[in-house]
Amino acid sequence: MEKRVALIGIIVEDMEATERINAILHDFSEYIIGRMGLPYRERKIAVISIVVDAPNQVISSMSGKLGMVRGASVKTQYSNV
Predict the structure, then answer these.
(1) How far, in Å, CA of 17 to CA of 4, rounded?
(2) Is the dihedral of CA 81, 35, 60, 28 positive or negative?
(3) Residue 45 near residue 11 (C-beta atoms within 8 A)
(4) Per-residue pLDDT tens for 1-40?
(5) Contact, 59 vs 25, CB < 8 A?
(6) Are 72 and 63 spatial neighbours (Cβ–Cβ below 8 Å)?
(7) 62 secondary structure, DSSP code
(8) Phi and psi for 13 in degrees, rounded to 5?
(9) Residue 63 and residue 8: Cα distance in Å, rounded?
(10) pTM of whole model > 0.85?
(11) C-alpha distances in angstroms, 4 versus 65, 68, 71, 79?
(12) For 37-64, how does the pLDDT look when each residue is reduced to its tens digit (9 = 90+)?
């Protein structure tokens, strides 16, 4: 199964969503290379960047589950290699 590197960007607009987001990230932790979270207190949001190395199906599953969390916006960008 071919693996790819991807960047998953999450904007959290409802801080109550963070518990569900963290649970999903924990479920996929074996694929996560790095994670950076930045609270933007002035706007009452948080921005999270997740870098993963995983098969396409895993990345899609992770992005899909994150995208279903109410109060969060998710976008995924794949590497070409």
Answers:
(1) 27
(2) positive
(3) yes
(4) 789 999 999 999 999 999 999 999 999 999 999 999 999 9
(5) no
(6) no
(7) H
(8) -100, -15
(9) 7
(10) yes
(11) 19, 22, 28, 7
(12) 999 999 999 999 999 999 999 999 999 9
Identify each DSSP E strand in 1-81 by its residue range.
3-12, 32-40, 45-55, 72-78
Six-digit token string for 44: 């009452």
What are 15's two structure tokens? 């801080």
Phi-psi label, residue 28: left if phi above 0, alpha if psi -120 to 50, beta otherwise: alpha
Dihedral (Cα; 50, 55, 58, 61), 10-degree rounding = 90
Q: What is the rounded CA–CA span in Å between residue 7 and residue 53?
A: 9
Task: Count the residues in the chain.
Answer: 81
Report the candidate in 60, 51, 7, 8 with the shortest Cα–Cα distance to residue 31. 51
